């Protein structure tokens, strides 16, 4: 991304003098999930023929809003109104929206890697008569579409043999094949190299000239400034600003809108005096498990002191989870190199059970698919990582297990009628406490908490924060990965900022604020 | 007056509701038990009492012994989230190996048994290795194993049947535990029950086993109460426990009137108890459930998932070998066809017993009851003279019904 900010944006064909004619109006959209209000009266107006950027932190509600728009959440599952091309729209599914020319391209591309470019472009929309595919027509149309997006590849090339940047172009060609009127791109450049990103953004400008309206979701504000005509900022599920892009709009201003919020009393009071260095990672390098040429973590180095809470900030995909999991028993990546030490002594973290016995614990960001056995009871889950403690000679002591589970239920205030309740029947906050109980029972020295408060309500968050503070008070080292900056600022003694696999900055509690972190993330 | 009446009515209502709720949430377990009883009652009536004649009960146990022995291992494999399609072939192969060793090469029975069990373990380990460490789907690996070992038994037997076995080997399947009590007691009971003879040991074992079941259940219940686990209503508890106890006494009473307890029954009973214990109360059993329930979470909890998968298949191999020995001893010959398609009966028994295809769910007792349910169906239909064509269809539909019932229950509760 270096040098990106140096672009002298030629924002061509600005539609300043154009008559305002909204193609899309989303009015007072409210969407609730059990226990969480993801969108709260969000308004979004997109003018015909413009590029409209949506900015916001992770979890602000951008993706949810786009899912509402694209029919992933059908009409009736949310409140509010969508007016598209002057008519109230009741989209029941993605098919509905695609028929009307609204196409969304997700961050995770929806291509079938084993099929050719042509097959992917016309998937579900085959050039065929009576079920028999007309390959000549298919390939000819594909060539035309590829020419439009500036991709020089034979239509028969398999998608898995071209890079991510080209795959992105195939997605756009696919959208064009469906007569797209409103194209939504969710973080389109997140996985792209700089020149690929630039090509993509120039293509957007070209499409705009041809009359296609675009919505782009992006964290990279320089890119936003490069292409966007308007910027809508979403924060905590609410629209906080709708800004006219142009030379007057600075990245700082966008950042301020993205992060500015009331922060009083959301975090329990804490007074900490961290001791000596407890845990240290040095020269940590990790390569991607499948794309072996891609280095996911580059020369990471970090320290955690006893009784300290250390944060790691960064956007999704910055490599925070990958760093944590590669340290914890090499659970992610290959060719992992580097040293990990505890109280100055090197420790063996080559498998999960060794990492556990060395004194590490890792609370995953995805408690449902990685943290819990949902079909099993609280008791089962609580003792799972330390069965030796509740067994003799491999034979479990069920009574002892129950006692342990009860003890943690009380200590962490897990709200449940009994510890024999299945994990899947608990609320998000209580599930998270069960995961914490499991790891506390292993008596770790260092806990790595990955998004410990994701998807849980405010009250439960406060309780989790209190538990974290207690752990630090007991002299444990806590690493806290979070996409919610206020949480990091409210909880941590020190914050590392991670970007594209590197720890690009380190801020003490005193010097850290949201603007500084955000500018480290977006500018590097 | 009215008020009191009302209160009484409400309390009865809540009580009934409690029982209904309980039944709803445990429909699967009771359903299986009821299904077994209903199927037995049905065949008992339509076969004019042949089903539960002493000789037929003995037969029923012998016929299903090798299925049950393999179902124990299969339950663990399926709970771990895998499947083993090779067990029928492995069973046949081990029978062939035993026959060749004993009949053609005059090896001792003890040595043969040991070699066969070890060979089974190695076969299981070899398949488990690819599944666990190379992440090749178990379906593929064991499908390959099924073909390979079917071919190997053909090769080993050179396409012929090999037999007969010496007496010491046949005892494995057709032997009976001798009555240790003086003959006089047996005669006394025989007169009392108006039977031709009574094996006192079998009769006493029945009462002892029944007493043990009642005692263990009571102990479990009082422990549950102490820890405030949602407990089953007393009526259900006693109903269930007494039915099981009565069934044990009944079966052994029947056996005692024929030739006593088959050796295989002892093997089967002991293995069932051991495996039930392993799955319910050992760390390794616990980890298998975690592995099948959520492999990624299990791995991130420090469980050595690969090794566990490997062990599950190794164990399956040993049990398939044991079943192969019993099967060969029972037929008194090894044939290239032995064990053909038997893996399907074993797998069906485990699923009828409530195990989940996706892993993490299932019990040993369920698998054993499932195997018996299939066994009674087979046996009952054979007595009735129903053709093998209809038998297959009916068994298939029973399996489908059991699984639909599971899925329906799960969807409803979700």
Automatic annotation (TrEMBL), chain B:
One Pfam match: BPD_transp_2
Transmembrane segments: 30-47, 59-79, 85-103, 110-130, 136-157, 169-189, 201-218, 238-255, 261-278, 308-329, 349-377
This protein's record includes keyword Cell membrane: yes
Any one GO CC term of the record: plasma membrane
Keywords from the UniProt entry: Cell inner membrane, Cell membrane, Membrane, Sugar transport, Transmembrane, Transmembrane helix, Transport
Primary localisation category: membrane
Membrane topology: Multi-pass membrane protein
Subcellular location per the Swiss-Prot or TrEMBL entry: Cell membrane
GO molecular function, one term: transmembrane transporter activity
Role this protein plays: Part of the binding-protein-dependent transport system for D-xylose. Probably responsible for the translocation of the substrate across the membrane.
Protein name according to UniProt: Xylose transport system permease protein XylH
